[in-house]
Amino acid sequence: MPPENLKILQTKTVAVVMRVSLRFQSVVYLYLIGLIALAELLPAAYVLEGVLLFLFFMVFSGTIFYILLMLATRRSYPSEVSDDEPSPLDPLVYVLVPAHNEENVIGKTARSVLNQDYLNLKLFLINDNSTDGTRKIMEAIKRQNPKRVVVIDVPPDRGRKKPRALNYALELIEKEHEKPEFVFILDADYILPPDAIRKLVRIMEKAPNYVIGIQGNVRPRNWRKNFITKFITLERLAGFNVAIEGDMKLNENGKYGGTVALIRFKDLIRVGKFGEDAITEDTELWARALISGYRFWYYHGIVGWEEAVEDLRHYIKQRSRWAQGHLQVMIDYYWNVLRGCTTPVEAFVEHFYLLSYLVPVFWLLSLLLNGYLLLTGARSFGLIPPKISIAMSIVAFLVFWASIAYSNWIEGKRTGLQIEWSFIAAYPLYFSLFVFMAVIYTTRALLRLIAGKFHWEKTKRFT
């Protein structure tokens, strides 16, 4: 790439980063100015009471959120899942697997795709500037399957970030390949069951036109490894078996998780492909699709088996990136997402979803502030007494604990696989660790947004 072009690219990238960072800083500064103004105009007790009221209603909203979605999971899906036999006349599907330095996992992932019982598919292995043996493994897979595999090398000026690599592949498909009906997005460490793509295609064939894609389920395949992987599995269980499935059955809003997802090709192009400057391109695409009138569906019966991180340092690092991207989407799309919702219930659920990374912070602050007022005997206006707020925080915890137990029970009923109940029963003993980790990675995410640090951080592989 010519040096002058590289310089232009770097300048554009810096400009985008600064624009997003300044937008976030503006929100933070306006909020602080508002607090300072209120503190000057009103007595400190009024300001404290306002903060306590806000925290109480955030904790209360979280309680309603999980109760509502747990109840919603008892409903049926809007479409039946067909188990029709595969046919060469099935819609054409391109499986896109972006990979940067994935030599330890890319071979297994590719084999799981090529072992699908769906007949009309082609695998696109996207080499995103790998410096290890990823490219050689891709070429070996292509040699063994010359008609079913395409290897794409992403140029240095377009790569080193998942959405950019995906967009480059989509541009090549538009120019040089037959247009598919669907693209299936898959991360490089996932293993699929043989019927995954066929069943998701069958659902999408019967889905209304406003359904842009369907998200499959996700589980860690190394969930038995240690405490961290079991803890992550509990997150996945509650997140998919309660939050996402409940939203799907209640609002037909199943989210997009960035992997194990089948998307209509023409609609993906219509909404502008993937956001190249987004830290979490999945949440960003979900928001833009919703604003444009589309919905993502979800189906629990197709599970992509991922490799979860296995230590606390990489857990915090990964979740910090997710939180940063989520907060970026919240700043950019919050009001537009709410306006794109079709019912007040959907607006409430999506409002809470956009704020979800801040909720543990709010819960802890409410508990600490009200605990301090109760222990010291300090007086506030008492619109909501500290005892009531503390009781609400305890109820919120019990509801969240119940959602974890419920999601584990559902998993056992459906698949026969579940976390041992002694680990669920002991959840109160390590819940505080979850909250403090959430505060750490959310705070790190906020600081990175303010500082304008938007570079993509690759997840370490433990295989």
TrEMBL record:
Record keyword Membrane present: yes
UniProt keyword annotations, A-Z: Glycosyltransferase, Membrane, Transferase, Transmembrane, Transmembrane helix
Membrane topology: Multi-pass membrane protein
Subcellular location as annotated: Membrane
GO molecular function, one term: glycosyltransferase activity
Keyword RNA-binding: no
Principal location: membrane
Pfam short name (any one): Glyco_tranf_2_3
Ranges annotated as spanning the membrane: 28-46, 52-72, 352-375, 387-409, 421-441
Entry's Gene Ontology cellular component terms: membrane
Protein name, as recorded: Glycosyl transferase family protein
Organism: Pyrococcus yayanosii (strain CH1 / JCM 16557)
